[in-house]
Amino acid sequence: MLFINFFFGYFFSSLSSKKSGGKKLVRTSIPTFTSIILLKKFKRLQMRKVFIILFATSIATAIVACGGSETTNKTVATTTTTDLSANPDYQKGLDLVAKSDCLTCHKINEKSTGPAYSEVATKYAGAADTTITRIAGKIISGGSGVWGAVPMTPHPQVSQTDAEQMMKYILLLKNS
């Protein structure tokens, strides 16, 4: 604010010195009438800019808060995924996997030492009971070559029924 007063006061006093035959007038700290008018216009312009920025920000906030159709689609997909918790195979398999050491080598959606559960579910989607029994046998006895060079360690402490239940749980994770 002080800069504007100084600038306009200096500018207009230097203009008036040129009109008075080139005599240098002493610069005053009192702003001229014209600089006061320009300062008031500048303040109004600043207030308009502030108002426009606040208005644009509130509109942007309202748009973000309301969301779009993408959010609705994500909500539907999430609702479908959370409906799995009502499935008894899901609950039993989740409990068995949590109690075992499966999560040391496997993750639900990302490859770790072993394949992600979602990859296994995609590969064996719609598998017959014989396939589930065969894969459950690999959980118990171990295996190699299907998912790469790293072998799966055997889990002889897991019963055939529990291994099949774990496999049913994994197959339910196809779209997660």
Name the features.
rod-shaped, 7 helices, Cytochrome Bc1 Complex, Chain D, domain 2, 0% strand, 176 residues, 2 domains, mainly alpha
Structural description of this entry:
With 176 residues, the chain is mainly alpha-helical. It has two domains: 2-66; 81-171, Cytochrome c-like domain (Cytochrome Bc1 Complex, Chain D, domain 2). It is 62% helix and 0% strand. It contains seven helices and no strands. Helix 1 (2-19) packs antiparallel against helix 2, helix 4 (88-99) packs across helix 7 and helix 6 (129-141) packs across helix 7 (160-171). The relative contact order is 0.09. Residues 15-19 have low confidence and may be disordered.
Write the layout of secondary structure elements.
Elements: H1 2-19, H2 33-66, H3 69-82, H4 88-99, H5 117-123, H6 129-141, H7 160-171
Summarize the structure.
This protein is mostly helical and 176 residues long.
